[in-house]
Write a structure and sequence with these properties.
Elements lengths: L10 E6 L9 E5 L6 E6 L10 E4 L10 E7 L5 E7 L6 E2 L4 E2 L5 E7 L2 E6 L4 E6 L11 E4 L15 E6 L5 E6 L4 E6 L11 E6 L6 E6 L5 E6 L4 E8 L4 E9 L11 E7 L5 E7 L3 E7 L6 E8 L5 E6 L5 E6 L4 E7 L6 E8 L3 E6 L1
Antiparallel strand pairs: 1-2, 1-29, 2-3, 4-5, 5-6, 6-7, 6-8, 9-10, 10-11, 11-12, 13-14, 14-15, 15-16, 17-18, 18-19, 19-20, 21-22, 22-23, 23-24, 25-26, 26-27, 27-28
Length: 362
């Protein structure tokens, strides 16, 4: 089986919180028959709290040596770091982490020649130039969000939590838990010499606490997972105008759930647009959501145990066969075979990964 042009995503990279006992960035092999992970290497304390990762491909294409791995350093004085993947099993740090001029960066992406971070602590996004050799420029451009929400403990001000380019490549969407909104940046103007500036702010229902966002394969829908309420907001997306509009909400736990407090963390969409899966922290489950054929709605069809405690991240293997949960508090990554008819994940195995926070494939 192959992912892209005969190439196979046979490596997983796992971020962690070193401040909670994590081993930096763990590299694991991915078995082609079972999806099982086997640890190959970890970076220890090269970068403090590399909680979220992304990568770029090398000159040989995806899943080949020569690319670069990037990590946030989720500290009060936040940073971002670049690693060489000349040896895909052993990421090599390329200089000290670069300050992002923001606090608590939780998410990052690469777009228009820049590494862009969402800074939860300071409620801002930062853009660092990516040089031709993969290293990061030293001066970050920053834009600070404004506003607040009704939950005083968590929404006293802006808290940017994710930055996601849209499928057209024209726009960047920044999901802000503190302002109950998604800030939309035009990437044609997002990273000039000055600070990135948003074009619009899509306001969602107050108190929901939007955390992350995933696009439907059709490019005309986006789904926002809400941390302060156990819901997903279904949105239409117009790439022509950069307009995000809420259509409705769906719960990520059953109505009769006895869990006192649940904090959804991540949402992933199947490549064919039939299913979505959401991670529930507190309920410690994975929600299975069936998407309508037109993408305008979704239905919770069930939940399955995440196989650990406090699933901070979910990742779908590019083949679409396996789902992986990074369980932060139990310190492991569990994987699941996906029933291709019902979308139900079935737990298959686990890898020890203290304070695991994210999983990506390369």
């Amino acid at each position: 089986m192959s992912d892209v042009a005969g190439q196979w995503a046979d490596r997983a990279y796992i971020g962690s919180f070193t401040s909670a006992g994590g081993r930096g960035i763990t590299t694991a092999s991915v078995d082609a028959a079972s999806g099982a992970l086997t640890e190959l290497h970890h970076t220890d304390n090269d970068v403090p709290d590399p909680s979220y990762l992304t990568l770029t491909e090398g000159p040989g294409g995806r899943y080949r040596p020569g690319g670069h791995l990037y990590a946030v350093s989720e500290r009060d004085i936040g940073g971002a770091a670049a690693f060489s993947l000349d040896d895909r099993d052993r990421p090599v740090l390329m200089g000290d982490p670069t300050p992002v001029r923001g606090g608590g960066p939780t998410h990052l992406t690469i777009a228009v020649g820049h590494l862009i971070t969402a800074n939860y602590g300071s409620g801002s996004i930062s853009a660092l130039p990516v040089r031709a050799d993969g290293t990061l420029g030293s001066r970050a451009s920053v834009h600070v969000h404004t506003g607040h929400g009704p939950e005083k403990a968590r929404q006293e001000g802006p808290h940017a939590h994710a930055v996601v380019p849209d499928p057209s490549g024209r726009w960047l969407l920044s999901v802000d838990l503190g302002t109950d909104s998604v800030w939309v940046y035009d990437l044609r103007d997002a990273c000039p010499e000055g600070e990135p500036l948003p074009q619009t702010e899509a306001v969602l229902r107050p108190g929901t606490g939007p955390r992350h966002l995933a696009f439907h394969p059709d490019g005309t829908h986006a789904y926002v997972i809400n941390e302060l309420e156990s819901t997903v907001t279904v949105c239409s997306w117009d790439a022509g105008t950069g307009t995000l509009e809420a259509l409705g909400e769906t719960r990520t736990v059953p109505e009769n759930s006895t869990q006192e407090r649940n904090h959804p963390s991540e949402l992933v969409i199947s490549g064919d647009g039939r299913f979505a899966w959401a991670a529930n922290r507190g309920h410690d489950s994975i929600a299975v959501l069936a998407l309508a054929a037109d993408g305008d709605s979704m239905e919770l069809t069930g939940t399955v145990p995440c196989g650990g405690h406090w699933p901070r991240d979910l990742a779908l293997h590019p083949s679409g066969r396996w789902l992986y949960a990074a369980n932060e508090r139990s310190g492991d990554v569990t994987w699941f075979d996906i029933d291709q008819v019902s979308g139900t994940p079935h737990r298959s195995g686990a890898l020890s990964a203290p304070a695991a926070s994210c999983v990506i494939f390369g």
